[in-house]
Automatic annotation (TrEMBL):
Keyword Cytoplasm: no
Protein name in UniProt: Acyl-CoA reductase
Any Pfam family the entry gives: LuxC
Keywords: NADP
Entry's Gene Ontology molecular function annotations: acyl-CoA dehydrogenase activity
GO biological process, one term: bioluminescence
Organism: Planktosalinus lacus
Length: 352
């Protein structure tokens, strides 16, 4: 397959996904192979919801919307055309996927296929319904993909390179097990937001999206706030109040109750608004239904801290702080050229 053929197949996939971003889904007449795949996709979404209580219909639709936008002609070409894949000798790239949010491993999957390699996927048991179905759609739209996509639940074998994502503990296992192969090993990362105290209500409200989308389970979710020494959290709490309905979700409520009990029994000082807690802490990985915060006294001191801890931070949400910052409300809407851990996946795939 040529790069243009691969891009066109992804454009069709994006159009297919665009039907499932609203509730109820909106069936479109101009989508390729819709009679064959539309009802089946509805079933896969239902299975994903039933299998993983964190994968609500709203969050699945949010993920599908982001991918339907990303898989447009202009975005795909902006991402891929700077590269030359003409001399690629197809190799098999294994991907060990996480399962914290819906389709979290799709970017790696897409990168391998677009570069002309074969992909061997080992999914998380938490997210095993959506991707195989989308892969089948791609194979029907572009039969050249057949033989290039394999899913396995067995021990990985017969691969030439690997991209693996997991916790810090599993990353140590990955680094040992895959040490003889070209690899990208991703560990725990969290995202932070830097507030100046001058944010508008609109910006603080948007920050709620960065914190609460996917219940805060993604590495791009803000789990730590940096605030000025004299910062007052009243405006912040008022702006995020529309998310209070999360406490009606059983899994979120259980975590809120449990973590609040831990804080109380440990006699920690924390701020609480009835569905969300703020705790002053130097760490980055806050429990569900809570966020850590830390006060800073100078911008230079803060920039030094962020640079020092850059291997722990996925992205920084702020305005006017650093060149690579993410706008408020956009942390869960990365572009195709925004790579996890700032490791360019296409560069890696071109050099295996």
């Amino acid at each position: 397959m040529t790069l243009t053929e691969r891009i066109n197949a992804c454009i069709h996939l994006g159009k297919f996904l665009s039907q499932f971003v609203e509730s109820p889904p909106l069936r479109k007449e101009d989508v390729l192979l819709n009679d064959m795949f539309f009802d089946g996709m509805l079933h896969q979404i239902k299975l994903a919801e039933e299998h993983n209580g964190w994968f609500t219909n709203e969050n699945i639709r949010f993920a599908l919307k982001n991918w339907s936008e990303a898989l447009k002609n202009n975005h795909l070409k902006e991402w891929l055309l700077p590269y030359s894949f003409d001399t690629i000798e197809p190799k098999t790239v294994a991907i060990v996927m996480a399962g914290n949010i819906p389709l979290v491993g799709f970017h790696d999957f897409l990168s391998v296929l677009m570069s002309g390699h074969k992909v061997l996927v080992k999914q998380s048991s938490k997210d095993k319904h959506l991707l195989p179905y989308l892969a089948k759609y791609l194979e029907y739209v572009a039969p050249g993909f057949k033989g290039y996509i394999t899913f396995t639940e067995d021990q990985l074998s017969g691969f030439d390179a690997v991209i693996a994502t997991g916790s810090d503990n599993t990353a140590r296992y990955f680094e040992y097990y895959f040490k003889t192969k070209p690899h990208i090993i991703r560990k725990n990362r969290n995202s932070v937001a830097v507030l100046s105290g001058k944010e508008s209500e609109v910006q603080l409200s948007a920050l709620g999206e960065d914190i609460f989308r996917y219940y805060g389970l993604g590495c791009r979710n803000v789990s730590k706030l940096y605030v000025p020494e004299d910062y007052n959290f009243d405006a912040f709490f008022n702006a995020i109040y529309p998310w209070h309905t999360l406490v009606n979700k059983q899994k979120y409520a259980n975590n809120y109750d449990y973590n609040k009990a831990v804080y109380l029994m440990s006699e920690f000082d924390f701020l609480d608004n009835g569905f969300f807690m703020l705790k002053e802490d130097t760490g980055y990985s806050s429990p569900i239904a809570s966020c850590f915060y830390e006060r800073y006294s100078s911008k230079n001191e803060l920039l030094q801290r962020l640079k020092q801890d850059q291997k722990l931070i996925q992205c920084v949400v702020s305005k006017g702080l650093i060149e690579t910052e993410i706008a408020f409300g956009k942390s869960q809407q990365p572009q195709l050229w925004h790579y996890a851990d700032n490791i360019n996946t296409l560069d890696f795939l071109l050099n295996i």
